[in-house]
Amino acid sequence: MQKKAVVLVSGGLDSATVLAQAIEAGYECYALAFDYGQRHRAELVAAKRVAETGGAKAFKIITLDLSSIGGSALTDMNIAVPDAGALGIPVTYVPARNTVFLSIALGWAEVLDADDIFIGVNAVDYSGYPDCRPAFIEAFETLANVATKAGVEGHGMRIHTPLMALSKADIVKLGTGLGVDYGQTVSCYRANTDGEACGRCDSCHLRREGFLQAGVADPTRYHKL
After folding, report:
1. In a domain, 157, yes or no
2. Which of 62, 121, 159, 160 has its CA 20 to 30 A from that of 137?
3. Do 201 and 73 form a contact (C-beta atoms < 8 A)?
């Protein structure tokens, strides 16, 4: 029987690559995205597009209102998204976001009788978010195996982070080899409703540098300022 996996799909470059990896590894993939009150809502359209064209068995959007607690430039319109180059944990960090997302993915995985969850976190070319580090993933996997029926019955829940140790250029090369169409993805924190990128935020900077260093043509569409 084909193994099932829940794959977190944001609509960005990394998650599109992870979905392709999971498909290539032979998993029947159930793509999960979140409408959490983010300002860059074009990523939800991109997530649906990536899931449908990338071969996911099903695609689901869970609605949460993290804007009600704020604390991030991505969920609070009163906090400006900075250009690339900020030091420390940036204001685009969304408090506990990956903890919340993985918890819901864990619940869906139990319903599907899936023992595997894929997430595109990265600890090399990233913005300094604490919930993208190996220590967080290891701790969450331990929690998952204590808190679930699957864990208690001995099946074991596994959190896969295949991009954790890769540079953005490595990710671009990997995804290109897997046939990922990065023109379908949206990474920008200030993307407009048409999915066009600002070209100045940290996410845009990391993405552009990744394509440049990989020697792959950048398909990103930028809006005119």
Report:
1. yes
2. 62
3. no
